[in-house]
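Question (not urgent): is this output format expected?
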Amino acid sequence: MPHIETDRMGEDFLKSLGFPTLSVHDTFTHFDFKTPGRRVLLIGPMGSGKTEWSARVWRDSEVAKKKGESVRALTSTGSVDRRNVFFIRSELDKARFKEYPEDAFAFRSGYIRCADNIAFIHDSFGLEEVIKDNPTVGTYIIDEASFFDERLAYVVRNASLEKGIMFIFPTLILNFRREFFNNTARLILDIATDVIPLTAYCENKECIDPAFYTYRYYSVDGKECPALFFDPLIVVGGDKVKDGSFNANYDSRCDLHHLLPGKEYTFFTLKPLGEMASRGDTVGLVRELEALNGKIESSILYSNLIRSYGDMVNGEMYLNSLKPGLVAEKALMYLYAEQNIISEQLLQKIVFDLELNIPYLEKTLKDNRRPVSFEQPYLL
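Got this back:
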């Protein structure tokens, strides 16, 4: 069972000095490099400071490495010294922080130079290679670990138990749908020894409540357009707001201001149509995708949004979810890449028949670990 961080040492210290009874918050202590094999999970929405918290660990390690030789015995297990910190990033994440140096341990308010102690990897096999090539590193900070395959959790667990290596995960556990990000996120939570929850202010301009959720939206013609529920699971976004249908933006949001249109439609209409198509009856799915591709107001999705949100005060905001376009592509990828309902053969045929956006499909499917090459139509 993971340990939820609750440090009461600060409270006891202040009471010993004679402070009156008051609310005492957790102290910001220097990081503990002595305990071997910890697997520390930092959870919170985008913008909550997960990576910046990890940067404090890096700075603390620089201080700890200046200590005397007797400290090495406290922070080491065999050849590894937990004061030696290494930063791991996903190759998918290279699009962020382009203005920073290649070796930057970057976060929203700045960065730290890591020299050779940083690597971009594609999967858990890449992590194994990094661990093998750096036998004295005792702490790995794995940014956005949920981007990697499930096997990563077991690579981490085994290395921590066998070598005393510590791992820190500043990562999203919940996706923009407010669900577990994926199986990797579930497994990381399962193997964690420590969980440190972080929050942020809700980034809605009229709200200052705590935010627990990550909100995805697009900015089209100056309008905020919430992502539909069946938007692709992994869409890499930057830390500055960008316009356009291809550029996802992210905010931290409270429950009230986290908008997620299209959830009812996904399970009540889209998924059943996909299941019918998988059994050979493709008429309904193709008709709906054709409407989503060019006649959006004749689609079942449009009718569902009007019925569900049309009379609400912020109903227009929900309807803005259709402005970014590529709705048919997103619906089709959801059925293929996430639900595994339709075959690649059927995917290819529908894409060519409806003349959908192939470059967008190829890039997004690759980012979501379901690559498809659309070279020629498949005939059923």
